[in-house]
Amino acid sequence: MGNVLSGIKTMYKSAFFLTTVSAAVVLSACSINPQPSGERAILVSIDALNERLLRDNLSAQQAPALYRVFDGGACTEYAQPMFPSVTAAGHASIWTGAYGDVHNIAANAVHVLPRDQNTAMATISGFDSANLSAEPIWISAGYAQRRVGGHHSTQAPGEAGFPARSGERSAQQQADFERVQAGYELSNVQVMNGYNQQVTGHAVIRAEDVSWTEVSEWRNLGQLGVTLEPKAFTFSNAAGTFHGLLFGSSRYDSMAISLTPDINQAVIAQSNPVETEGFADRELARHFSEPLKVETERGNTFLRIRLFEVSNNGEDFMLYHPSMHVMDTNHESVQAGYDEYVQGWFGNSASRMYTAGEFGPTRFQGGDGTAEARYLETAELFTRVFNKGSSWFWQEQQVDLLVDYFPLGDSIDHSLLTYMDPTWPGYDEAVGEAMTELRNKTWQLVDLRLEHLLQLAADADAATFVVGDHGMRSSWMEFKPNVLLQQAGLQVLDENGMVDLSRSKAVAPSGHWVTVNTTEWRGGIVEPDQKEAVIAEVVQALQGAADSEGGAVIERVYIASEHPELGIGGAAGGDVYWSEADNYRSSRSTRGDQYVAETGPLGWHSRASTDPYMQTVTCAYGGGFSSKRIPASKLIDVAPTVSDYLRMPAPRHAQGRSLLPDLR
Questions:
Q1: What is the pTM of this model?
Q2: Is the pLDDT of residue 304 over 70?
Q3: I need a labelling partner for 543 at 20 to 30 A (CA). Which of 38, 82, 95, 220 fits?
């Protein structure tokens, strides 16, 4: 896939001509100087924010900032998300004011374009910018002479691809492509995304994972003032090799980590008990070490460590470090300034490590709560570094518009929401209560994150626009549309178990829709005049899908061409969509004898945008807004509304409307 994407990008860079319009954009890009504006705004997307779910689980005392926005801000009754309701597609709609049939980020995994050069089964990440075909708000703000910062914004800061459906870009697509590219060159546009370049993931390191070495290799040990003989070791990951030292006086209780065996170059963590105090009156993640700067071929990254436990004799320990990332930015100065100020941003809390039992047995594995406490410390650090990054853009760079993001709630709800659901067949009341407590504590950190942003905005008499990308609900049943298509005679697997596109009429490459394998695709077999007949067969198969007891698996089927109001279909989307029955989630799997199977508990979204559990929020707080409720909105209304507030044009491809007259 990497070679395919590289080839597409190379083709687009070299094969197209410059139009008069786009050439003018390029020539004028560097001449734009930001002008002061009376308005400043923070636009923050809180991943998986659903007001109903929040109010059902947390009180105003537990989540004061969120309740303050909902009760004291100007809000729509709810915001309808993208269809399917997934993160990459939802955020592309927030940023651009358009749906997936326009911006081509149709899901988290989307068709690779152009169609005539790619098969119907080829996909690319929707978080990548290669398919993006609409102008994001930070580019529009740049051309409107606003200082703008994009803080870990999806589909940024790489080139927006504006790929053609088939063949080469049109003259208009080429002009749009060059306008966005030139916009990234503007000095008043500062966009960064650490998710694009992860060097190494979260890790728990124990004694059996390291190589023990001679302590004599270490320098400047005398200044430690310890009585026990230190124990030295090394460990390696994709960022490099690290030298470690366990030391202490009456017992081993401290660890130093360095790039060289020199105590003067090391960061140090002590083995403190897990946190039991609340968040309100102390520093978050206070037992983590200072950051250790690590230079890699891809750029600078940082290592922070937490020594969760060490045996008295130093023969065993539990060391954790979060994932390590290189900041991807459109200006080198942004990367350098952010690195110096934040020193160690990483992509999310260690929720997957927690559920896998790497912090010790979880409560649903019979644990005593220690694993949960360790997980929360990772979430604390994640919140702390994200807040620091927001402060850098808002206070140090003095941006007029800060486009921000926070995914902590999404990750914990994926992990725990089904354990909290009494209708799940595996529900255990004691475990459910423990998971509810952990989930709610994590969302209290989300609330602290929002409080930080609200305070930044309040100090500048600015507005905070609080939005989300989708909601969440529990699931424990899997629907496999590709297996259904096989049973309907619409898809065939080859001898290796792969989809044989030379004999398959329809495919579900991302699990969110069915695409007819027309001759528009490379290697496609369905002629254009046969497409409607194949769609009818797909619809019939979906409507007839049933579980072992005859219950319906699909609530409703949507033919993309019949529902332009939902923004489904388009060049990178499919032909037929659906809404699953309660507790189901769809997958892209092509294997198996049955298209329905019971699977593990998992909080899930990606459902139809019409599902109440998928609804999210749009609110404006401060900056002249007061308590008000207006009818429901759509995610595509966010960018036009924020643009209107800042007195600048909406993004060029926006299809939503400004809510500002109704919210004020």
A1: 0.93
A2: yes
A3: 82
Tell me the percentage of the chain whose pLDDT exceeds 90: 92
Distance in angstroms (rounded) separating the CA atoms of residues 654 and 317: 54
Q: Which two tokens stand for residue 651?
A: 């993004």
How confident is the prediction for the chain on average, in pLDDT? 94
Q: Angle at which helices 370-391 and 408-416 pack, to 10 degrees?
A: 160
What is the rounded distance in angstroms from the CA atom of residue 468 to the CA atom of residue 464? 13
- Can you tell me the distance from the alpha carbon of 463 to that of 480, in angstroms, rounded to the nearest whole number? 44
Q: Strands 252-258 and 267-270: what pairing?
A: antiparallel
Cα 459 from Cα 623, distance rounded (Å): 10
At residue 198, the pLDDT reads 97
**Residues 6+ positions from 148 with CB-CB distance below 8 Å:** 137, 138, 141, 142, 188, 189, 190, 191, 399, 400, 401, 402, 403
What's the distance, CA 235 to chain centroid? 30
pLDDT 10s digits, 252-303: 999 999 999 999 999 999 999 999 999 888 999 999 999 999 999 989 999 9
What CA–CA distance (Å, rounded) separates 548 from 629?
Answer: 45
How far apart (Å, rounded) are the C-alpha atoms in residues 580 and 572?
Answer: 22
User: What is d(CA 213, CA 124) in angstroms, rounded to the nearest whole number?
Assistant: 44
The tokens for 106 are: 């149709």
Does the pLDDT value for residue 22 go beyond 70?
no
Phi–psi pair at 179, nearest 5 degrees: -65, -45
| Cβ–Cβ < 8 Å for 386, 449 | yes
Neighbours of 203 (CB within 10 A): 17
Q: pLDDT tens digits for 368-409?
A: 999 999 999 999 999 999 999 999 999 999 999 999 999 999
Structure tokens at 325: 């990332």
Cα(88)–Cα(605) distance, rounded to whole angstroms? 12
Angstrom distance (rounded) from CA 227 to CA 240 = 31
- The region that residue 475 occupies, defined by phi over 0 for left and psi between -120 and 50 for alpha, beta otherwise, is beta
**644: three-class secondary structure by DSSP:** helix
Query: Which pair of tokens denotes residue 404?
Result: 């921000």
Residue in the structure block whose two tokens are 């290189």: 326
- 621-651: pLDDT as tens digits: 999 999 999 999 999 999 999 999 999 999 9
Other Cβ atoms less than 10 A from the Cβ of 348: the count is 21
**How does DSSP assign 192-203, residue by residue?**
EEGGG-EEE--E
First-to-last C-alpha distance (Å) of the chain: 48
Q: How far apart are CA 466 and CA 63, in angstroms?
A: 14
What is the token pair recorded at 558? 């949507």
At 38, the pLDDT band (50, 70, 90 cuts) reads low
Cα separation, 629 vs 466, whole angstroms: 14
For 436, the token pair is 């509810």
Which amino acid makes up residue 505?
Answer: K
Residue 449 in contact with residue 442, Cβ under 8 Å?
Answer: no
- Which residues 6+ apart lie within 8 Å of 565 measured at CB? none
How would you classify residue 237: left for phi > 0, otherwise alpha for psi between -120 and 50, otherwise beta? beta
Other C-beta atoms within 10 Å of 85: how many?
A: 29
- Classified as helix, coil or strand, 408 is helix
Tell me the mean pLDDT in the region 516-544.
98
DSSP string, 291-324: PEEEEETTEEEEE--EEEEE-TTSS-EEEEE--E
